[in-house]
Amino acid sequence: MRRGTRRAHREAGRIECDENEHGCVFEGTFRATLLGRIGPILFLVPQEGMFSLTLLETIREPSQLHEMTPQQLEALAAELREKMIRTVQKTGGHLASSLGAVEITLALHRVMDSPRDRIVWDTGHQAYAHKLLTNRWDRFDTLRQVGGIGGFPRRSESAHDVFDGGHAGTGVSIGVGLAAARDMKPGADPARRQRIAVCVGDAAIGSGLTMEALNHLGHTKQSLLIVLNDNEMSISPSVGGLSTRLNKMRLSRAYQETKSATQRTLPRIPVVGQPAFELLGWAKEGFKRSWAKVGFFEDIGITYIGVLDGHDRGELEEAFEAAFRLRVPVLVHVKTTKGKGYAPAEEDSMSFHGASLPPIDLCLIDPTEEPLPPEGKPKRKPKTYTQTFVEELVRLGTTDQRITAVTAGMPTGTGLSRFAEHFPARFLDVGIAEQHAVTMAAGLALAGMRPVVALYSTFGQRAYDGLVHDVCQNELPVLLGLDRSGLVGEDGTSHQGMFMLPAMRSLPNLAIGAPKDEQELRDLVVTAFEHDGPMALLYPRDAGEDLPDRIGTALQLGKGEVVRLGDDILLIGFGPIVQRLLAVAIELEADGLGATVINARWAKPLDEALIGEHAAGKRLIVTAEESAIMGGFGDGVLDALNRADIHVPVHKVALADGFVHHGAVDDLRRQQRIDAPGILAQVREALGASRGAPSDSRSNIPAA
């Protein structure tokens, strides 16, 4: 037993294992007594027949759940929550949402046979229990680390992962596509009996893509289970015995058969039949709308069941099984508690939703363990670029009543919640609908406002058509703040902010800027409101350089600056990577090489005159950006040099072609060789020096 305690069943139970980690086949029983209760989690002390394996550690395939007793399943749910809490305490992760989805996960795997049946996790941040039940519990402590388990479903990890997700609102469309493919198979094909389920959150259900998928599904009537995990009461729940009874009736075969028979026969009765049928339909619809609030889904052709207790596994299993029997699209609406099983996460689900968590006191998990040792008073952290962006926005909004802030379901992450505190009437959160956010901002601009749309860079991809067609084509003064530009780390391939710069460079009328530090970000925000056209500002999630606060001042559009002079090499950076170039220039000076460093500020319009002036006669030109290498800032510099007929070797430092996986940002920068030692090594290699040496073999500079 690890640490002398182990979570156990509330009642005497039985564990049967094929073999333990030493290859020994065994089985046995044990009895446990209650030691204590902290929040909703029970802690039990084994008294006899203690085992080295928990229930979770015996599961290699989710099909094993089919044979478990209710008592075992209850104990397993507690073990799943404990494993998540212990792991996320060390690695960070989407804790609250996954804790709330444990019973949903168990119920789905109990009524389905994955991977033959398909479970799609919309967004994927609810899928930790799914990962643990699909033979990844022994690697779960590598969650979100380089080379470890991903924070979202990944097909490369398991056949049970259907789709590499990460962006909310995609799941129902994926499910509809899977259902369409299933129904295209020959009638005798066993694959026609495949069950497909999509688990979607209450925020994602309102996204534009989900609405389009639901509309299509209501037309095609394909058999598909949609589990709406409502943990924020975005959709008002039905309560009381009448609603529960209605759900049981509507799920029963008797009800469905009676409903079909009534629809066939009642209108045929002479004189009174049709009026009676219409009256019955009117009464039924009125009852449904008044008590069950199901009108929207029913109106588009999707059977609605809800609201169920999302932590009552037995009730969920019954509903899911019955829904599949109907062989029509069914939405089961369940109410869950975000952070279920861990009191701090239940009380503050927002803080415990995302990747950055405060340390979790392990005494709240296992009373036999010592608390984490105090680390002394935490050091003051520099402001992030996000904080600086919003501070300047608030300052300007105080005097300019036209400034309006818009976001798409991310007011806290983008920092706009602070703007909302100061100017609630000029703050708009449209939910997970990025394209609508940008197009609505175009409407605001047409009416004389100065809208700011703040999105994570990865979600800005979803708004691209609105940026092209609505903002840039109409040359409207919309400021697009792309937070989390560059590497964001542990959320992995779906969230790295590396593609927007190449995507935007071709857009007419759009100015694109990035600051070298937080002071310059203030300047760029001021510049945006003095510019009578669209602008995109790219800034990372990082902390700034801890520079003193100051009021921003307008900069000249398309004008860069020289921050260091040297005769041999030209280093040109876009964004905070300029700081790394300065460190590289200092190291090159020790090699006897003088380097000029240019802070480009603008990817468009590019300061071609400044670059041309300092490029001529250099041995090497190096461009640097934390963005995809193809079509990015470096390619813009190459084009400018060609136009100026300057022929000097150019080396592009950027993110390699391909997706960047999960891991700490510093680790990923080192892996991609865009940290300072990696850039230095690339420069030396491009100059023909130190070939084959490790990336930091001759460097004394820090990686940051």
Structural descriptors:
704 residues; Rossmann fold; five-stranded parallel sheet; 24 helices; 20 strands; disordered N terminus
Description:
Among the domains are: 1-53, no CATH class; 385-538, Thiamin diphosphate (ThDP)-binding fold, Pyr/PP domains (Rossmann fold); 561-686, Rossmann fold (3-Layer(aba) Sandwich). The chain is built from 24 helices and 20 strands.
- Number of beta strands: 20
Q: Overall 3D geometry?
A: globular
Could you give a short account of the major beta sheet? Answer: 7 strands, mixed
Helix/strand-derived category reads alpha/beta
**CATH superfamily assignment of the domain at 385-538?**
Thiamin diphosphate (ThDP)-binding fold, Pyr/PP domains
With strands numbered from the N-terminus, the spatial order across the biggest sheet is: 10-9-11-12-14-13-18
| CATH fold-level label of the domain at 385-538 | Rossmann fold
Which strand-content bin applies to the residues? 15-25%
- Classify the helix fraction into a percent range: 25-40%
Provide the CATH architecture of the domain at 385-538. 3-Layer(aba) Sandwich
For the termini, the CA-CA separation is 42 Å
Number of helical stretches of at least 4 residues = 24
Mean pLDDT: 80
CATH class of the domain at 385-538: Alpha Beta
Radius of gyration from the CA trace?
29 Å
Poorly predicted runs of 5 or more residues:
1-51, 233-240, 355-374, 689-700
